[in-house]
Specification:
- The radius of gyration is 18 Å and the shape is globular.
- The protein has helices spanning about 25-35, 45, 65-70, 105-110, 170-185, 200-205; strands at about 15, 55-60, 80-85, 85-90, 130, 135-150, 150-160, 190-195, 215, 220-225.
- Strands 1, 2, 5, 6, 7, 8, 9 and 10 form an eight-stranded mixed beta sheet that branches. Strands 3-4 form a two-stranded antiparallel sheet.
- About 25% of the residues lie in helices and about 25% in strands.
- It contains six helices and ten strands; from the N terminus they run βααβαββαβββαβαββ.
- The two termini are about 25 Å apart.
- It is α+β, with helices and mostly antiparallel strands and about 240 residues long.
- The chain has one domain (about 15-235): Aminopeptidase.
- InterPro entries: Acyl_CoA_acyltransferase (IPR016181), GNAT_dom (IPR000182), GNPNAT1-like (IPR039143).
- It comes from Tieghemiomyces parasiticus.
- GO terms for molecular function: N-acetyltransferase activity.
Length: about 240
């Protein structure tokens, strides 16, 4: 008998598109914990020029929900910003002391004219408020961009270790597929999956036309594709 996998309450998980480059700190924090601290990728290669033109998604959970799972992530950056659909993130919920943050984040924020980025240190974790005053913490992220006409490419998919097994990754993939079809009109999407993560993407409807492995940054990968015309992608599963 297998243990019951906990589920993430639908009302608790918030998935939003990043509207401004200064908000990228939220995605970046998750990526640092997943890819740099968790998998050992060099910090210098984790962020690339593609980030400035990608469509980024961030998944957020209420801090209270996160606290019931495991210890909250020890993150350090927070931003106040808005999206084209209204307020995404509000003010920091408690007194904060500004700190010097990495040069790459400073440079990235400067690429967004007219937006006021506020990166602060808040007791060792990211805490931002939603529209209803709920304290939210970034727990997952991904990015996507046009690979060629009609075909998107998805990458930098990461969920914090303490939040895995809650279908957050699946929910983010569903959201990405809807962005790909409804906003960009793509017919297909591809990705380079770490070989040991391929099963997750297969559960999301991806196929492996060629099982040949190849190395990217010393990790074995495999190319995977998904036909976005599938009826399963017309709504959240």
């Amino acid at each position: 008998m297998h243990p019951t996998t906990p589920s993430c309450p639908t009302d608790d998980l918030v998935i939003r598109s990043i509207a401004h480059l200064d908000e990228f700190a939220l995605c970046r924090q998750v990526r640092i914990q997943v890819f740099i601290e968790g998998q050992g990728f060099p910090l210098i290669i984790e962020r690339d020029p593609q980030d400035a033109t990608c469509h980024h998604l961030v998944a957020l959970l209420p801090l209270e929900t996160l606290a019931t799972l495991h210890q909250p992530p020890s993150s350090t950056f927070v931003s106040s910003a808005t999206t084209d659909t209204g307020t995404l993130l509000g003010d920091v919920t408690s007194k904060s002391t500004p700190v010097a943050f990495p040069t790459d984040l400073t440079d990235l924020a400067s690429l967004a004219p007219g937006t006021a980025a506020e990166f602060v240190y808040n007791g060792g974790r990211v805490t931002v408020t939603g529209e209803d005053g709920t304290v939210l913490v970034p727990v997952g992220t991904l990015r996507l961009y046009e690979y060629r006409p009609g075909v998107g490419k998805l990458g930098r998919v990461g969920v914090l270790p303490q939040c895995r097994g809650l279908r957050i990754g699946q929910r983010m993939m569903d959201a990405a597929h809807q962005v790909a079809t409804r906003q960009f009109g793509w017919q297909k999407i591809r990705l380079h999956a770490q070989y040991d993560k391929a099963e997750f993407y297969m559960r999301c409807g991806y196929e492996v036309p060629d099982p040949t492995q190849f190395m990217e940054e010393n990790f074995p990968h495999v190319a995977m594709f998904k036909d976005l015309a599938s009826p399963a992608d017309q709504g959240f599963s």
